[in-house]
Amino acid sequence: MTSAGTISETTHRVNYSEIDQMGVVYHARYLVWLDVARCEHLRLTGLSYRELEERGFRMVVAELGMRYLRGARYDDEVRVRCWVREVASRKVVFGYALHRVGDGELLATATTAMFTLDASMRPARLPNDVASRLLTTPDPVRID
Amino acid sequence: MTSAGTISETTHRVNYSEIDQMGVVYHARYLVWLDVARCEHLRLTGLSYRELEERGFRMVVAELGMRYLRGARYDDEVRVRCWVREVASRKVVFGYALHRVGDGELLATATTAMFTLDASMRPARLPNDVASRLLTTPDPVRID
Amino acid sequence: MTSAGTISETTHRVNYSEIDQMGVVYHARYLVWLDVARCEHLRLTGLSYRELEERGFRMVVAELGMRYLRGARYDDEVRVRCWVREVASRKVVFGYALHRVGDGELLATATTAMFTLDASMRPARLPNDVASRLLTTPDPVRID
Amino acid sequence: MTSAGTISETTHRVNYSEIDQMGVVYHARYLVWLDVARCEHLRLTGLSYRELEERGFRMVVAELGMRYLRGARYDDEVRVRCWVREVASRKVVFGYALHRVGDGELLATATTAMFTLDASMRPARLPNDVASRLLTTPDPVRID
User: Least CB-CB distance to D27: which of B22, B61, B71?
Assistant: First the structure.
C-alpha cells in the first residue's frame, strides 16, 4: 500500500509506431503512457484498475492538460512519474512528469482529471476503500 | 443491396498520426483502413456491422495476409477496394486492394479471414440472411 | 481563402479501432481528429500543412487542453469544428468543438497551442503570408 | 551476440488503449508488439535497429501473415517470441509466437518478410556484418 507522497514510476522504450515524420513521438501517443502510468499507480496502492472494473467501477478521463517541452525519439527510454494531485468524492486528479532517461531532460508534464462511473456509465462515488488509498502528494515539478 | 461481383470503395486521406519517421504510413495503420472498408462493404449489402453486433454476432479477424508494395505518404488520398472472396458457414474471406488516388499506384493488397462469434464469443454460424448478402467476386488484382 | 470568423468543419465516422472496452472512443483517439481538423482548416486558408512542411516549417503541439463531456460510440458520425483563437509570431492557438451528428450532443471541447519550428526543429516565426491567413474568430462554444 | 537457434523474448502488459469493445486486443495492435520484438531481437544480435538506421539502412515490412487464435484481455501479460526463419541478400523473414503468460495459451502466430532499403528508400543488400548475425532457427511452434 502506498504512503503519503508516493510518486510512482514506469518506463517506456519508444517504439517505431510512435514516431512521426518529424522523427519525434507523435503527441497523441503520450496519452497511452499516462494511462499505463496511472494504472500502475493504482496497482501500487493495492487495487488494480482491472479489479476496480470487476467491482463495477470505471475511471474516465474528464479533463486533460498537457505541455510538450521536448520531443522523444525512437528507442529513447522515457520515465513517467505519476502522482495524485487531488481526490474528491467523484473526481481524482493525477499529475505526470515525463523525463528522458538518457539525459534527464523533462519532455512533458500533464494532468488528467478522472471521473468515477458505475457499470451503467453513470457518475458514481469512488468506493471509500479506494479513495482512502489515493493519497495526494505535492507536484515534484512545476505543472502549469 | 449488393449484386454479385460488387467491389466496394472507400477513400482515406493519410493523416499525420499514420506516418512514421521514414515518411511513409506505418504498416500497422493499414489494418484500420481495411476494417473501415469491410464495414462499409457490409453496410452496402444492407446490414451494417453495428446492426450485426446488435443481433448478437461479432466478426473477428482470424487470419490476415498483407503485401506492401509502395509506401503511402502524408496527405495522400488512398482508395481501398474491398470484396468477398469466399463465404462458408463460419468464415468469410475479404480481399482488399489499396491504390493511391493521385497516380493510381497499387500500394498494397490484403486478405482477412473473418470468423463469426456469438455474444459469448463462441464460434457461430453467420445468419442466413447475412450470408446470402455476401456474394463473392473474382479478385480484381492479383493477390498472392 | 478564409475570411474572419471562419469555423471549419470535418466529420469522422467512428471506427472499431477507436473504441475501448467501455464501448466508447478511447480518449487519445480524439487528438488525431483534432490534427485532421487543424490540417483541413489550414487547407481552407489556402495553404496545406504539406506545403508548409515543403517550405521548411513545422507546427508542433506545445500545449493541449481537452474536456470530455460525453462518449462517442462505434459508427457515430462526429463533427469537429475548428477555428483560430489566437495568433502570435511563434504561436497559433486553435479551438475545437466536437458534436455527435445524430443527436447534436456536444462530446468534447479542446484547444491546442502550436509552435512553429524550422526544418532543424528550432523555434521560428510563422511566415507572414501564412500568419495573415490565420484569422481569429470568437469561440462558438464555451471552452474552459 | 546471438548463436544459431536463438529465440528472443519480450513481454508486454496489455494496456487499455489496445482493447476494443469486444473486450479483447484489437487485431492491429499486435503488429506493434511484433515490431518491438523484432527490434529487441536485432539488439540481441549486437546491432540495434537505431544503429542500422544511422548506417543508412531501413528494414520495411514487405509481407505480413498472421493467425489469431485467442484474444488477449486488458492487463494480460503477453510473451512474444521472435526468431529468424530465413535470410536472403535483400530479405529477412521473422517468425513470431505470442503466448499469454498467465495460462500459457498460444494467442497468435505471425511472420513478417522484411526488405532492406537504403536511405533513399531503394532496395539494398543487407550489410554482410548484419546478415551474418541473423542466424535462422527452426520454428518453435507450427506456423501456417
Answer: B61
User: Exposed, middle or buried, A104 (CB in 10 Å: 0-12/13-18/19+)?
Assistant: exposed
Strand partners, D98: D80, D108
D23–C17 C-beta distance less than 8 A? no
Cα distance between residue D45 and residue D39, in whole Å = 10
Query: Which among A89, A92, A90, A77 is positioned nearest to A42, based on CA atoms?
Result: A92
**Has A20 been annotated as catalytic?**
yes
Answer yes or no: is pLDDT of C3 > 60. Answer: no
Distance from C-alpha of A72 to C-alpha of A18, rounded to nearest angstrom: 10
- 3-class DSSP string for A42-59: HHHCCCCHHHHHHCCEEE
Phi, psi of B43 (to 5 degrees): -60, -40
Chain B: residue whose CA lies nearest to C14: B36
Which residue, D126, D119, D123, D131, is CA-closest to D56? Answer: D119
Rounded distance, CA D79 to CA D57, Å?
28
What residue type is C45 in one-letter code?
T
Written as nine digits, the cell of D54 is 544511422
Which tens digit of pLDDT belongs to each residue from C110-135? 999 999 999 888 999 999 999 999 99
Quick one: C91 exposed, middle or buried, by C-beta within 10 A (0-12, 13-18, 19+)? middle
Lowest mean pLDDT across A41-55, C72-86, D28-42: A41-55
In this prediction, the residues of chain A whose per-residue pLDDT falls under 50 are 1-3
How far is B25 from A26, CA to CA, in rounded Å? 13
Instruction: Check residue C119 and give its pLDDT.
Output: 87
Note whether C26 contacts D: Cβ–Cβ < 8 A.
yes
- Within chain D, where are the H helices? 30-44, 49-54, 128-131
Rounded to two decimals, what is the model's pTM?
Answer: 0.95
- Whether residues D36 and A15 touch (CB distance < 8 A) is answered with yes
Order of strands across the sheet that contains D106-117 = B8-13, B77-87, B91-100, B106-118, B57-68, D58-68, D106-117, D91-100, D77-87, D8-13
Give me the domains of chain D, ranges plus CATH numbers.
8-131 (3.10.129.10)
Q: Among candidates C21, C7, C16, which has minimal Cα distance to C99? A: C7
Q: Tell whether A20 lies on the interface with B, counting CB pairs under 8 A.
A: yes
d(CA C58, CA C127): 11
Alpha carbon distance C81, C85 (integer Å): 12
Place of cell 463465404: B87
Chain C residues close to D26, C-beta within 8 Å: 16-17
Task: Indicate the residue type of A91.
Answer: K
Mean pLDDT value of segment D133-142: 94
d(CA A94, CA A136): 9
> What are the φ/ψ torsions at residue C68 (nearest 5 degrees)?
-105, 120
Residue C135 φ then ψ, to 5°: -90, 135
φ and ψ of A87, to 5 deg: -130, 125
* ipTM for this prediction: 0.94
Strands D58-68 and B57-68, by their bridges, are antiparallel
DSSP for C7-49 reads: -EEEEEE--GGGB-TTSSB-GGGHHHHHHHHHHHHHHHTT--H
Q: C26 in contact with B at a CB cutoff of 8 Å? A: no
